[in-house]
Amino acid sequence: MEIKGRGGRKLSGLQAKAVYIIAAAMALYHFYFLTLGVLDPWLFRGGHLAFALVLIFLITPARRKTEAGKSGFTPIDMLFALAAILVYVYLILNLKGLNMRAGVAPTSMDVIAAVTTLILVLEASRRYFGKVLPIVAGIALLYTFFGDLIPGGLFMTPNYSFERIVSYMFSTTGIYGIALHTSTTYVFLFVLFGTFLVNSGVGDVFMDIAKGLAGGVRGGPAKVSVISSALFGSISGSASSNVVTTGAFTIPLMKKTGYRGDYAAAVETTASIGGLFLPPVMGAGGFLMADILQIPYLEVVKAAIVPALLYYIVLFVLVDFEAVRLNLKGMERAQLPDVKKIFMSNGYLLIPIGVLLYSLLIMHSSPVRAGLWAIAAMIIVSWVKKASRIGIKKLIDILSEGSLMALNISAATATAGIIIGVVQMTGVGLTFSSLIMNLSGTSMVLALILAMVVSIVLGMGLPITATYITCAAILAPAIINLGVEPIAAHLFLYFFAAISGMTPPVAVTAFAAAGVSGEDPIKVGFSSMKLGWIAYILPYMFVFGAPLLLIGTTSQILIAITTALIGSIAMSAALHGVINRKLLIYERSMLLVGGLLLIKVGAFSNYVGFAIIALFLIFYKMLNIKNAKVKTQ
Fold first, then answer.
1. Best CA proximity match to 274, nearest among 248, 301, 312
2. How far apart are CA 216 and CA 203, in angstroms?
3. What pLDDT was estimated at residue 70?
4. Could you give the maximum distance between any two Cα atoms of the chain, in Å?
5. 137, 265, 335, 508: which could form a disulfide with 513 (CB 3.0–4.6 Å)?
6. pLDDT tens readout for residues 239-278
7. What local confidence, expressed as pLDDT, does residue 190 receive?
C-alpha cells in the first residue's frame, strides 16, 4: 500500500496503513454521530479537528523543499499528531468546566491546551496551504494582544489578558465556532458524497452525457468542457480538482480541434470555477452562508441558481462565438456516445443525485439528512453492475480517500475560526464597516468596489473558504448597512472569492489548468478573465437587481432574468466581435450600448436597450441578405 501525501511525501508499509485506517475511522466517526446526533457540538467539532490535524501532520512534511521526495513521517510529525490527540482528550475530560470558563476565567491547563491548539492549527495551515493564511491569522491574533496600544481610537481595542484571548480562541466562538461546524457537518459529508460519485463512475457518465449532447456541434469539445465541468463541479465543490478531473480529457481535445492552448485551459478554468456557485453543493460556501445568515440552505440554493445559470449560458455562448471565429467543426459522429444508451446502461448511477435533489427541494430535508440519504442510495445502486459495485474493501477505500480530500476545508475553517474569534472579540468588523462607510460615503458602488478588491486580493493568498469567511466577518456588515439584501451581500463576496482563482497574478485554478495544458499560467489567467468577464459584473447585477436572486414578484423576476440574459449575450457578442460572422464596428457598438442598458436596472434603460438591440437585429439581417446576394452574383 502507498499513499501520496502533500509536498512530495509518500507513505508506504505500516505508515500508509496507519494513515489509511485513521482516515477511514474519521469518516466512520462522522457517519456515526451525524446519524445519531447525540454528541455535544464542541466535542463533535473537536473530534473532527483532532482527526484532521493528525492526518495533516502525518501526510504533509514540515519543509517541502528539504523533505520533497522523502518517504515517511518523522518523529516531529508524530509529536504534533500526539499533541492534537491529547488536546482532544483534555476537551473530553473537561468539557463541562470549559463551557463555563472559556474566555472568562480559564485555568492554567485551559491556557496550555488553548496555546497548543493555536500552534497546531497554525502549523497545520502552514503545511497545507503555505504561509499566507497562518500569517493573516497570526496578524489577527497580534491585533488582539496589542490593539490597545494603537493610537487614534478607531482600531483601538480593550486591554485583554493573554489568558482570556487564547481561551476565547479555544472555544465555540473561535476555532471551534461556526466555520468548523460547517466543515464538520455539511462540507465533510458532501466531500464524501463526491468521492463516492467519482469512484462509482459518475464522472465518466457526466463526461459521456456532455459529449453526446454537445460534442457534435461546432466547437463541440469546448462545449463538452462547459457542460461536464458544470455537472461535475456542481457536486464536487472544488474548482482545482474539477480542472484536473475533466480537463485531462477536454483540454487536449480542444487543442486537437483547433483551439489555442491557453484558450482551452481558460475554458476549463472558467467552467470549473462556475461549479463553486452552481447548486446543489456550491463548495463549502453555500453551507457557510446558510449558517452565517441563519437561513435554510434551500434559500441559498434558490438565490444562487439564476446567477449561476446566467454565468454558464454566457460561457457557452462565448465558446460558440470563438468556434465561429476559428471556423471549427464538432467532433466526428463516430466519436460521440449515444445519450439514450448512456442513460439506459449507466443512468442508475445518477439516482443518488436525484435522491439528493428530491430530499433538498421536495422533502425540504436538512443538508445533512439529504447527504446521508444520497450516500446510502449510492452504495445501494452501485450493486446494479459489477463495475460500479461498492464492496467492503472499496467502501473503506472511499471513506479513507474522502477524509483525506476534506482536510483542506478542515484546516481552512479552523484557521478562519481564529480570524472570526478576533472579529467577535474586538468588534473590528464594525470598525471596518465604519471605515468602508467613511471611504465610500453614501456610494454603494464605491463600497462594493472596495469589497470586490479586498475579496479578490485575499483570495489570491487564501483558500476560497477562508477568504469568504474573512470577508463575511469584516465586509458583509458594511454592505448590508448600505441597504443591500443580506443574501445578495454574501453571494457578492463569495463570487469574488471564487473568481480570484482565475484572476492573475495568483490564479490558482488557472494555474492548475495551465499545468494540464502545458501553457504559460499567467497567459491562461488573463485568457480566463477575458472569457469569464461576466463573473466580474454578475455580482453587481444581482446586488442592484434582487429579482435575479428570485426576490420579488413573478413579473419582476421574469423581467430581470430576460433583460440580464439578453444584455449579457449582447455584450459578449460586442466584446468578442462575432456572432455568425465577424461584426462591424458600428454593430459591436450597438450591441455594447444596448447590452449595458439592459443590464442596468430600470424600466427606461430596458426600453432603450431593447430598442437598440432590435435596431441592431434589423441592420444585421439586412447586411446578411446583402452579403448573400453578392455571393450569388
1. 312
2. 20
3. 63
4. 95
5. 265
6. 877 787 788 888 888 888 888 999 999 999 999 999 888 8
7. 87
Any residues with CB less than 8 A from the CB of 454 and at least 6 apart, and which? 471, 475
Q: Which of 169, 206, 197, 180 is nearest to 53 (CA)?
A: 180
> What's the chain's length in residues?
633
Q: 11 has which bridge partners?
A: 3
CA distance 11 to 8: 10
Task: Measure CA of the first residue to CA of the last residue in the chain; give whole Å.
Answer: 73
Closest to 54 (Cα-Cα) out of 93, 97, 89, 96: 89
Phi-psi category of residue 219: left, alpha or beta, with phi > 0 → left and psi -120 to 50 → alpha:
left
Which stretches of 442-553 are DSSP H helices? 444-461, 464-474, 476-481, 486-499, 508-517, 521-531, 534-544
The whole-number pLDDT of residue 63 equals 81
Using CA atoms, how far apart are residues 531 and 70, in angstroms rounded to an integer?
Answer: 41
Regions in the chain scoring below 50 on pLDDT: none
* CB count in 10 Å sphere of residue 627: 11
What integer pLDDT is reported at residue 605 of this predicted model?
Answer: 92
327: left (phi over 0), alpha (psi -120 to 50) or beta: left
Among candidate residues 119, 20, 6, the one with its CA nearest the CA of residue 56: 6
Q: Under a CB-based contact definition with an 8 Å cutoff, are residues 599 and 610 in contact?
A: no
State the burial class of residue 503 (Cβ atoms within 10 Å of its Cβ: 0-12, 13-18, 19+): buried
How many CA atoms lie within 13 Å of 351's alpha carbon, on the beta-carbon side? 18
Whether residue 479 contacts residue 451, with contact meaning beta carbons closer than 8 Å, is answered with yes
Q: What are 84's three cell numbers?
A: 492534537
**Count of other CB atoms within 10 angstroms of residue 392:** 7
User: What's the sign of the alpha-carbon dihedral 200, 202, 208, 211?
Assistant: negative
Q: Is 79 helix (H, G, I), strand (E, B) or coil?
A: helix
Cα–Cα distance for residue pair 593/15, rounded to 1 Å: 63
Nearest residue to 56 (alpha-carbon basis) of 125, 132, 135? 125
Q: CA-CA-CA-CA torsion for 443, 447, 452, 454, nearest 10 degrees? A: 150
Task: Report how far residue 260's alpha carbon sits from residue 378's, in angstroms, rounded to the nearest whole number.
Answer: 39
- At 511 the pLDDT is 86
DSSP structural state of residue 582: B
Is the whole-model pTM more than 0.70? yes
